[in-house]
Amino acid sequence: MITALDDLTVDLVPHAQSVAREGWTGKESARPLSPQGLTQAGSLPAVMRDSIDAIYSSPAKRCVQTVEPLARSFGLSIATAPGLATPDGTYQPREWTEGFFSPFQRELGGAWMAGAALAVLIVMGNAHPGGHVVACSHGDVIPVFVAQALALYGHASPPPVVDRGGWHRMRFGTDALTVESHGPVVSLPST
Question: pLDDT tens across 156-177, in order?
Fold first, then answer.
């Protein structure tokens, strides 16, 4: 498929439980994890014990906070990747999402997100050939990321959705992809 991905393992982690959008008055990218989310993030190093070569994250504070305990545990820095970020409410490229194409802005925006995610995936593969990386992103980006990878390798059915505190482990082979879904490490009470 894509040579840079051969033998790459990516643990794709949705950010842990964050402070609710409702009532948050700060910049969306600065919205942090809730106390429960900090607990979820703190439990990841105990279950992600395999060797990790690198950690990537959306620049959003809640994503960076999710992987900080892993980074400390493995003595790694966190590389922020805008391609893992959620759109700011405007889909790109603007010329294709307004005017004549405006009825298709969600589809075109999804394609744009998929391309941005693929670019990050290739960067990770080139930087860590045959390695194991963790990438933290958002609930609206992760399905696009997973769907694109599945389509690249001809898979028809998606894996189960993982809740906050869980992750997808994607193992890229020369001509095959396996995806394992892991449920939340710490179960939180419903609110």
Answer: 788 888 888 889 999 999 889 9
